[in-house]
Amino acid sequence: MVSIYELKPKFQQLLRPLVRGLAKIGVTANFVTISAAVLSVALGILLLLYPSYNWIILLVPAFLFFRMMLNAIDGMLAREHKMESSLGSILNELGDIVSDAAIYLPFALILDTSSAFVVSLVVLALVTEVTGILGTVIGGSRRYDGPMGKSDRAFAFGVLSLLIYFFSFPTVIYTIVIAALLLLLILTTFNRANRALKEVQS
């Protein structure tokens, strides 16, 4: 199914001049990866401390786009500038999981819907990423299948943040949105597991 992840090659092409410049001044892929995680945790703490300060939520869509840039940059630095390492692979996967949890869990306090519902969404998002990693465990590739991968979740929460700030919807609307995201995550988990199995069996 279609995923924003499919736009990654074009996004990388736009970032390539910046990546070359960063490599020239000695910026490493691991530094970028760690920076993205640290900044994500900082934003998450800010959201947790001030869940009722609506203006803070406007930082979310801007930061999620910035984080997508950092995620693309660290990968390009690693692959195109000979910075790949086992440590880098571990940091990349852990960084994504920590960053997602840090940014999305505060929505349990912010959204006008069941907190448990939102926490379940975040947990399932992490399960989706672990399922993608398991593709390598069984001898295949890291799976990034959609329809609700990392980039898609960032887009969804970015839009959700804007809706929260600019509009006032009843609880049922947010409940429906979270339910839809949960269903998409379940489908994504199934797709990744199914395609990983087909890959190793072919």
Can you give a write-up of this model?
- With 202 residues, this protein is an all-alpha fold.
- The chain has one domain (4-201): Four Helix Bundle (Hemerythrin (Met), subunit A), CATH 1.20.120.
- It is 76% helix and 0% strand.
- The protein has helices at 8-24, 29-49, 59-80, 86-104, 107-110, 115-137, 150-166, 171-201.
- Helix 2 packs parallel to helix 4, helix 3 runs antiparallel to helix 7 (150-166) and helix 6 packs parallel to helix 8 (171-201).
- It is globular, with a radius of gyration of 17 Å.
- The model has no long low-confidence stretch (mean pLDDT 93).
The SSE string, one letter per element, is: HHHHHHHH
CATH-derived architecture: Up-down Bundle
The total number of structural domains is 1
Structural class: mainly alpha
CATH class division: Mainly Alpha
Please name the CATH topology.
Four Helix Bundle (Hemerythrin (Met), subunit A)
By CATH, the superfamily comes out as CDP-alcohol phosphotransferase transmembrane (TM) domain
Q: Helical region count? A: 8
Separation, N- and C-terminal Cα atoms: 20 Å
Overall morphology: globular
Portion in beta strands: under 5%
Average pLDDT taken over every residue: 93
GO molecular function, one term: phosphotransferase activity, for other substituted phosphate groups
Protein name: CDP-alcohol phosphatidyltransferase family protein
GO cellular component, one term: membrane
GO biological process, one term: phospholipid biosynthetic process
